[in-house]
Protein backbone atom coordinates (compact mmCIF):
# COMPACT_ATOMS: atom_id res chain seq x y z
CA UNK A 1 0.00 0.00 0.00
CA UNK A 2 1.17 3.51 -0.73
CA UNK A 3 2.37 5.16 2.46
CA UNK A 4 0.59 8.44 1.69
CA UNK A 5 -2.78 6.76 2.19
CA UNK A 6 -4.06 6.68 5.75
CA UNK A 7 -6.91 4.35 4.94
CA UNK A 8 -7.99 2.19 2.01
CA UNK A 9 -10.75 -0.29 1.37
CA UNK A 10 -10.38 -3.20 -1.03
CA UNK A 11 -13.60 -4.57 -2.54
CA UNK A 12 -15.41 -3.78 0.71
CA UNK A 13 -18.89 -5.28 0.64
CA UNK A 14 -21.88 -5.30 2.97
CA UNK A 15 -24.93 -7.37 2.13
CA UNK A 16 -28.19 -7.35 4.08
CA UNK A 17 -30.10 -10.49 3.20
CA UNK A 18 -30.21 -10.33 -0.62
CA UNK A 19 -29.52 -6.60 -0.97
CA UNK A 20 -26.07 -5.03 -1.37
CA UNK A 21 -25.75 -1.84 0.66
CA UNK A 22 -22.08 -1.55 -0.32
CA UNK A 23 -20.76 -3.51 -3.29
CA UNK A 24 -17.03 -4.08 -3.85
CA UNK A 25 -15.99 -0.60 -2.70
CA UNK A 26 -12.33 0.40 -3.11
CA UNK A 27 -11.50 3.88 -1.84
CA UNK A 28 -8.18 5.53 -0.92
CA UNK A 29 -7.99 8.29 1.70
CA UNK A 30 -4.81 10.45 1.48
CA UNK A 31 -3.17 11.49 4.74
CA UNK A 32 -3.86 14.99 6.08
CA UNK A 33 -6.55 15.80 3.54
CA UNK A 34 -10.33 16.14 3.57
CA UNK A 35 -12.01 13.40 1.58
CA UNK A 36 -15.64 13.88 0.62
CA UNK A 37 -17.67 10.67 0.42
CA UNK A 38 -20.69 11.78 -1.56
CA UNK A 39 -23.90 10.14 -2.65
CA UNK A 40 -27.66 10.42 -2.54
CA UNK A 41 -29.53 9.13 0.49
CA UNK A 42 -29.29 5.34 0.47
CA UNK A 43 -26.08 5.27 -1.59
CA UNK A 44 -24.24 3.29 1.10
CA UNK A 45 -22.20 6.08 2.69
CA UNK A 46 -23.24 5.53 6.30
CA UNK A 47 -22.87 1.75 5.97
CA UNK A 48 -19.33 2.26 4.68
CA UNK A 49 -18.44 4.54 7.59
CA UNK A 50 -19.94 2.12 10.11
CA UNK A 51 -17.71 -0.66 8.73
CA UNK A 52 -14.64 1.57 9.00
CA UNK A 53 -15.50 2.40 12.61
CA UNK A 54 -16.24 -1.21 13.56
CA UNK A 55 -19.98 -0.73 14.06
CA UNK A 56 -20.75 -3.16 11.23
CA UNK A 57 -18.84 -6.22 10.11
CA UNK A 58 -18.13 -6.39 6.36
CA UNK A 59 -19.61 -9.27 4.38
CA UNK A 60 -16.37 -9.41 2.43
CA UNK A 61 -13.40 -7.28 1.41
CA UNK A 62 -10.70 -5.58 3.49
CA UNK A 63 -9.98 -2.31 5.23
CA UNK A 64 -6.33 -1.22 5.26
CA UNK A 65 -5.40 1.22 8.02
CA UNK A 66 -2.09 3.06 7.69
CA UNK A 67 -0.55 0.23 5.68
CA UNK A 68 -1.85 -2.79 7.63
CA UNK A 69 -5.05 -4.79 7.76
CA UNK A 70 -7.59 -3.07 9.99
CA UNK A 71 -8.10 -4.45 13.48
CA UNK A 72 -9.99 -3.19 16.51
CA UNK A 73 -6.84 -1.60 17.96
CA UNK A 74 -7.07 0.91 15.12
CA UNK A 75 -10.21 2.37 16.72
CA UNK A 76 -8.00 4.33 19.11
CA UNK A 77 -6.82 6.36 16.11
CA UNK A 78 -10.33 7.03 14.78
CA UNK A 79 -12.74 9.71 15.97
CA UNK A 80 -16.24 9.80 14.56
CA UNK A 81 -19.49 11.70 14.58
CA UNK A 82 -22.10 9.49 12.94
CA UNK A 83 -25.77 10.42 13.27
CA UNK A 84 -26.46 12.24 16.59
CA UNK A 85 -23.67 13.65 18.83
CA UNK A 86 -23.18 11.38 21.89
CA UNK A 87 -23.88 14.05 24.52
CA UNK A 88 -25.71 14.21 27.83
CA UNK A 89 -28.22 17.06 27.78
CA UNK A 90 -28.13 17.67 31.53
CA UNK A 91 -24.35 18.15 31.58
CA UNK A 92 -22.23 21.11 30.50
CA UNK A 93 -19.69 20.87 27.68
CA UNK A 94 -16.88 20.41 30.20
CA UNK A 95 -18.82 17.75 32.10
CA UNK A 96 -19.61 15.87 28.90
CA UNK A 97 -15.95 15.85 27.98
CA UNK A 98 -14.95 14.83 31.51
CA UNK A 99 -17.05 11.66 31.13
CA UNK A 100 -15.02 10.71 28.06
CA UNK A 101 -11.57 11.71 29.37
CA UNK A 102 -12.25 9.54 32.43
CA UNK A 103 -13.16 6.58 30.21
CA UNK A 104 -10.11 7.14 28.00
CA UNK A 105 -7.69 7.88 30.84
CA UNK A 106 -6.84 11.33 29.47
CA UNK A 107 -5.72 14.36 31.52
CA UNK A 108 -8.14 17.19 32.23
CA UNK A 109 -5.99 19.62 30.23
CA UNK A 110 -7.23 17.86 27.09
CA UNK A 111 -10.73 19.16 27.87
CA UNK A 112 -9.50 22.75 27.73
CA UNK A 113 -7.59 22.04 24.52
CA UNK A 114 -10.53 20.62 22.58
CA UNK A 115 -12.98 23.25 23.88
CA UNK A 116 -10.65 25.87 22.43
CA UNK A 117 -10.39 24.02 19.11
CA UNK A 118 -14.18 23.86 18.68
CA UNK A 119 -14.78 27.33 20.16
CA UNK A 120 -16.85 26.27 23.15
CA UNK A 121 -14.69 27.73 25.92
CA UNK A 122 -17.30 30.31 26.92
CA UNK A 123 -20.23 27.93 27.49
CA UNK A 124 -19.61 28.00 31.28
CA UNK A 125 -22.44 26.29 33.21
CA UNK A 126 -24.86 26.07 30.29
CA UNK A 127 -26.36 22.61 29.92
CA UNK A 128 -25.90 20.92 26.56
CA UNK A 129 -29.67 20.54 26.10
CA UNK A 130 -29.81 24.33 25.79
CA UNK A 131 -27.12 24.47 23.09
CA UNK A 132 -27.92 25.41 19.51
CA UNK A 133 -27.69 22.62 16.93
CA UNK A 134 -24.34 24.00 15.79
CA UNK A 135 -22.96 24.00 19.32
CA UNK A 136 -24.11 20.40 19.81
CA UNK A 137 -22.34 19.38 16.60
CA UNK A 138 -19.14 21.11 17.71
CA UNK A 139 -19.33 19.39 21.09
CA UNK A 140 -19.76 16.07 19.29
CA UNK A 141 -16.63 16.81 17.28
CA UNK A 142 -14.79 17.79 20.48
CA UNK A 143 -15.61 14.35 21.91
CA UNK A 144 -14.45 12.72 18.66
CA UNK A 145 -11.01 14.41 18.72
CA UNK A 146 -10.29 13.97 22.45
CA UNK A 147 -8.00 11.01 21.85
CA UNK A 148 -5.84 12.74 19.19
CA UNK A 149 -7.23 10.66 16.30
CA UNK A 150 -5.39 10.28 13.01
CA UNK A 151 -8.73 9.92 11.22
CA UNK A 152 -11.92 11.89 11.88
CA UNK A 153 -15.15 10.65 10.31
CA UNK A 154 -18.05 13.08 10.00
CA UNK A 155 -21.36 11.79 8.63
CA UNK A 156 -23.66 14.59 7.39
CA UNK A 157 -22.33 17.04 10.03
CA UNK A 158 -24.19 20.10 8.70
CA UNK A 159 -27.66 18.53 8.82
CA UNK A 160 -30.08 20.88 10.58
CA UNK A 161 -27.61 23.75 10.92
CA UNK A 162 -28.39 27.37 10.08
CA UNK A 163 -26.05 29.32 7.73
CA UNK A 164 -23.92 30.64 10.60
CA UNK A 165 -23.60 27.17 12.11
CA UNK A 166 -22.58 25.77 8.72
CA UNK A 167 -19.96 28.49 8.27
CA UNK A 168 -18.50 27.86 11.73
CA UNK A 169 -18.37 24.12 11.17
CA UNK A 170 -16.81 24.54 7.74
CA UNK A 171 -14.00 26.63 9.22
CA UNK A 172 -13.43 24.04 11.95
CA UNK A 173 -13.28 21.11 9.52
CA UNK A 174 -10.81 22.91 7.24
CA UNK A 175 -8.45 23.38 10.22
CA UNK A 176 -8.01 19.68 10.96
CA UNK A 177 -5.46 18.63 8.28
CA UNK A 178 -3.06 21.26 9.67
CA UNK A 179 -3.33 19.45 13.01
CA UNK A 180 -2.41 16.11 11.44
CA UNK A 181 -6.00 14.88 11.28
CA UNK A 182 -7.31 13.27 8.09
CA UNK A 183 -11.05 13.81 7.57
CA UNK A 184 -13.70 11.74 5.80
CA UNK A 185 -16.72 13.95 5.29
CA UNK A 186 -19.90 12.24 4.17
CA UNK A 187 -22.72 14.31 2.70
CA UNK A 188 -25.31 14.67 -0.03
CA UNK A 189 -25.17 18.51 0.04
CA UNK A 190 -22.76 19.21 -2.81
CA UNK A 191 -22.64 23.00 -2.58
CA UNK A 192 -21.47 22.77 1.02
CA UNK A 193 -18.97 19.95 0.66
CA UNK A 194 -17.13 21.34 -2.36
CA UNK A 195 -15.94 24.29 -0.25
CA UNK A 196 -13.89 22.10 2.10
CA UNK A 197 -12.85 18.84 0.40
CA UNK A 198 -9.59 18.05 -1.42
CA UNK A 199 -10.56 14.61 -2.73
CA UNK A 200 -13.90 13.07 -3.57
CA UNK A 201 -15.44 9.63 -3.84
CA UNK A 202 -18.94 9.47 -5.33
CA UNK A 203 -21.16 6.50 -4.45
CA UNK A 204 -24.36 5.45 -6.13
CA UNK A 205 -26.41 2.39 -5.17
CA UNK A 206 -23.52 1.00 -3.11
CA UNK A 207 -20.97 1.33 -5.91
CA UNK A 208 -18.06 3.77 -6.22
CA UNK A 209 -18.68 5.63 -9.45
CA UNK A 210 -15.82 8.11 -9.26
CA UNK A 211 -12.79 8.94 -7.13
CA UNK A 212 -10.18 11.65 -7.55
CA UNK A 213 -8.71 14.98 -6.55
CA UNK A 214 -10.92 18.06 -6.75
CA UNK A 215 -9.56 20.67 -9.14
CA UNK A 216 -10.21 24.41 -8.67
CA UNK A 217 -13.36 25.46 -10.49
CA UNK A 218 -14.51 21.89 -11.11
CA UNK A 219 -18.27 21.49 -11.39
CA UNK A 220 -18.91 18.94 -8.66
CA UNK A 221 -22.66 18.88 -9.29
CA UNK A 222 -22.19 18.00 -12.96
CA UNK A 223 -19.71 15.27 -12.02
CA UNK A 224 -22.10 13.91 -9.40
CA UNK A 225 -25.03 13.81 -11.83
CA UNK A 226 -22.91 12.09 -14.49
CA UNK A 227 -21.93 9.36 -12.04
CA UNK A 228 -25.52 8.93 -10.88
CA UNK A 229 -26.76 8.73 -14.48
CA UNK A 230 -24.14 6.18 -15.55
CA UNK A 231 -24.75 3.99 -12.49
CA UNK A 232 -28.51 3.99 -13.02
CA UNK A 233 -27.98 3.21 -16.70
CA UNK A 234 -25.79 0.20 -15.87
CA UNK A 235 -28.36 -1.05 -13.38
CA UNK A 236 -31.14 -0.73 -15.95
CA UNK A 237 -33.02 1.83 -13.86
CA UNK A 238 -33.15 4.28 -16.77
TrEMBL record:
Top-level taxon: Bacteria
Q: Which Pfam families match?
A: ABC_tran
Ranges for domain ABC transporter come to 7-230
Q: Which UniProt keywords apply?
A: ATP-binding, Nucleotide-binding, Transport
Q: Which InterPro entries match?
A: AAA+_ATPase (IPR003593), ABC_Gallidermin_ATP-bd (IPR022501), ABC_transporter-like_ATP-bd (IPR003439), P-loop_NTPase (IPR027417)
The Swiss-Prot or TrEMBL record annotates one GO molecular function as:
ATP binding
Give the matching SMART domains: AAA
UniProt entry tagged with the keyword Lyase: no
Similarity-based family: Belongs to the ABC transporter superfamily.
Q: Which protein is depicted?
A: ABC transporter related protein
Q: Which organism is it from?
A: Clostridium carboxidivorans P7
